[in-house]
Structures are given as structure tokens and as C-alpha cells.
Amino acid sequence: MNGNGFSMTEEEFIKRHHKFEVKENQCSSSLVKHIKAPVHLVWSLVRRFDQPQKYKPFVSRCVVQGDLRIGSVREVNVRSGLPATTSTERLEYLDDDEHILSMTIVGGDHRLKNYASIVTVHPEVIDGRPGTLVIESFVVDSVWLFRITLSRSKERERSGSLLAASRTSSLGVLC
């Protein structure tokens, strides 16, 4: 493990595939997940820009405008409990050989501005069996995350909710 909690292999993949030009007033983060399933099975779900609800539990519905290709736009409905109900997203890059998908958020009823993400999947061995390393990274304007954190803090003060407190903490760690 290195100083930011990633293994050397994870860090190498992040440096190679998850490059963002992080501007002033932006923040970036990466999430690593190890899945006990072969890479071809995981990629068959992750690559489906037209069906993110297959692997993202907070998505309830997705409609793609036009053919599925680079530049395609999808309208996503988000389940209740998140600070949004819709998101409009554009497919920026899809590479089936390297297992890379990149998208940006171009609209919706949320506060995320200049959001871009990259997802990569990589084969690995877990407990002697084929597994998959999934890395998802993003960049977003931190001013908006700060405002979300402030509004969540106000919600927590009003409601006393532990859930609101945990959301505030997790958002605060991102920047």
C-alpha cells in the first residue's frame, strides 16, 4: 500500500488510465473495487452506457437518445434518497479492448458541475479464481460539492439524522 491507500498495481492503473486535468476549484477522487467475477462478465455490464441500472443501484431508469456511440446522450432517473432525480450524461469514450468507459454529466437537476468520470476494469486473481479490479475516478467542481456539504449540514442540524451526518462526512472526504 502507498500513502493514499492504493496498492502498487492499483496506483499504476490509476496513473495510466485515470488522468484528469484538475483545475482550481475542482477535486478528484478514485474508488477501487475488487469483484469475484471474471473481467469479461464485469465488463459486459459496465460497458452498457444504455443500461447503468444493471450495475448502479441508485439508477432506476435510463433512456439513450439515438444510436449508442461516442457522443451519445442518456437521460438517467435517480432513485429517491440522493440529492437529484435526473441526470443527463454523454458518452465520451468506450474502448472494449482496454475496458475503458468515460462519460461527462451535461445536465440534470443536481448540483454537479463539470463532472467527468472514467471507469476501467482489469483482470486479477482473487482467492485463486478469476476476478476483476474495477477503478472509477472522477473530477468535479469542488465549489458545488462544498455547497452540497453545507446544505447537508443544515439538513442534519434540522433533522438530527445520522444518515445526513454520514453523507456530509463522505462528501467532505472527496475534496
TrEMBL record:
Localisation: Cytoplasm; Nucleus
SUPFAM superfamilies, per the entry: Bet v1-like
Classification via InterPro entries: Plant_def-hormone_signal (IPR050279), Polyketide_cyclase/dehydratase (IPR019587), START-like_dom_sf (IPR023393)
Main location: cytoplasm
Record keywords, A-Z: Abscisic acid signaling pathway, Cytoplasm, Nucleus, Protein phosphatase inhibitor, Receptor
Pfam families listed in its UniProt record: Polyketide_cyc2
UniProt-listed Gene3D superfamilies: 3.30.530.20
Protein family per UniProt: Belongs to the PYR/PYL/RCAR abscisic acid intracellular receptor family.
The protein's name: Uncharacterized protein
